[in-house]
Amino acid sequence: MASLGLSPAGAQAPCPYPSSAPVIIRFLLVLLCASFAAAAANGSCTWQGWKDAPGDASQWHIRVDPSGQSGTFTTVQSAIDAVPENNNHWFCIYVKEGTYREKVQIPKNKPFIILKGRGKRNTEIVWDDHETVAQSPTFTSSADNIVVKSISFRNSYNNPVNENPKVPAAAAMIRGDKSYFYRVGFSGLQDTLWDVEGRHYFKRCTIQGAVDFIFGGGQSIYEGCAISVLGNALPGLSGFITAQGRENEQDTDGFVFKNCNVFGSGSAKLGRPWRGYARVLFYHSNFTDVVDPKGWDAWSFVGREYQLTFVEYGCYGPGADTSKRVSWERKLDDSSVQQMTSLSYVDSEGWIDRTPF
Ligand SMILES: *[C@@H]1O[C@H](CO)[C@@H](O)[C@H](O)[C@H]1NC(C)=O
Ligand SMILES: *[C@@H]1O[C@H](CO)[C@@H](O)[C@H](O)[C@H]1NC(C)=O
């Protein structure tokens, strides 16, 4: 177990605002701190520490190593617990390779965490809760401004496919705003990734499951992701990749899959609506014949299909033949497609560029 001297006071140290100072000095300090924060944001999170980050990086850097090497934590959660509440600069939590059998939660009051592993095949966090979908996630991220890289989350209750009853059991639940996942794996069977709400960018991730395995009301772009269907778990039935949760016509949420690969065993529809205005766009994605020729299902919104926005645009591969699709699949005009597939759909203010990378 580590002793890192991570005190809330230490965390605040880089940006002191002495209230006794004259206004102009305080103003200059604020500017200085703002530029300091911007500079720090360009560092990169490594096992050794922050690369190219100014200041006392030891305060902002935590290592997790299951062997308990000195100066490290042995669990991911204990490392997150060591981050001060309401911290306002990036913390690098570097997680050594290994299988971590624990549930991990980033609470709402711990923003600015970068959780980085040594590759999604090497650093894996596994648990098997399945009482309710809300109780089940192996990883729950509730804070804004979170970056996760090169790590995998699995709910092992039904993954790998086994003899257990098939129930909703999430690998991850993401409910903060401004969250970026790069080369992250999510493995489960039903309800694998609960993309609850907020703006999220998933790049080069792998998401595996069979039923509603990407679901929720997030406003998200999945770019260059592998969507892996475990259809052999449902002999004779077709699964569902998405169950999007847009509730009103004015809501801006929706799932966009851009340049993704959809493959796997058995068969799955691209989605069904969890809520009445569900919106899902598959754009320039590669479908094997794992995609059910009907494409989509109206679930409990039969008769209100006109409310749904389920779209394919420029997809290719054997599963992309739309001749047998449901008649109500939507066509979007080019400018709406352009608006939803541009990074500004999830990032109009540049938060992705400012994350440490
Ligand atoms: C950080 O990155 C941004 C965007 O790439 C760049 O404009 C800025 O100059 C960089 N800041 C530092 C301190 O390197
Ligand atoms: C499309 O997917 C198939 C099957 O996974 C793969 O063999 C093929 O190379 C992919 N095509 C492109 C252009 O990526």
UniProtKB/TrEMBL annotation:
<dbReference type="InterPro" id="IPR033131">
    <property type="entry name" value="Pectinesterase_Asp_AS"/>
</dbReference>
<keyword id="KW-0063">Aspartyl esterase</keyword>
<keyword id="KW-0732">Signal</keyword>
<keyword id="KW-0964">Secreted</keyword>
<feature type="active site">
    <location>
        <position position="212"/>
    </location>
</feature>
<comment type="function">
    <text>Acts in the modification of cell walls via demethylesterification of cell wall pectin.</text>
</comment>
<keyword id="KW-0961">Cell wall biogenesis/degradation</keyword>
<dbReference type="InterPro" id="IPR012334">
    <property type="entry name" value="Pectin_lyas_fold"/>
</dbReference>
<dbReference type="InterPro" id="IPR018040">
    <property type="entry name" value="Pectinesterase_Tyr_AS"/>
</dbReference>
<keyword id="KW-0378">Hydrolase</keyword>
<keyword id="KW-0325">Glycoprotein</keyword>
<feature type="signal peptide">
    <location>
        <begin position="1"/>
        <end position="39"/>
    </location>
</feature>
<comment type="similarity">
    <text>Belongs to the pectinesterase family.</text>
</comment>
<dbReference type="InterPro" id="IPR011050">
    <property type="entry name" value="Pectin_lyase_fold/virulence"/>
</dbReference>
<comment type="pathway">
    <text>Glycan metabolism; pectin degradation; 2-dehydro-3-deoxy-D-gluconate from pectin: step 1/5.</text>
</comment>
<feature type="domain" description="Pectinesterase catalytic">
    <location>
        <begin position="69"/>
        <end position="347"/>
    </location>
</feature>
<dbReference type="InterPro" id="IPR000070">
    <property type="entry name" value="Pectinesterase_cat"/>
</dbReference>
<keyword id="KW-0134">Cell wall</keyword>
<dbReference type="Pfam" id="PF01095">
    <property type="entry name" value="Pectinesterase"/>
</dbReference>
<protein>
    <recommendedName>
        <fullName>Pectinesterase</fullName>
        <ecNumber>3.1.1.11</ecNumber>
    </recommendedName>
</protein>
<dbReference type="GO" id="GO:0030599">
    <property type="term" value="F:pectinesterase activity"/>
</dbReference>
<dbReference type="GO" id="GO:0042545">
    <property type="term" value="P:cell wall modification"/>
</dbReference>
<dbReference type="GO" id="GO:0045490">
    <property type="term" value="P:pectin catabolic process"/>
</dbReference>
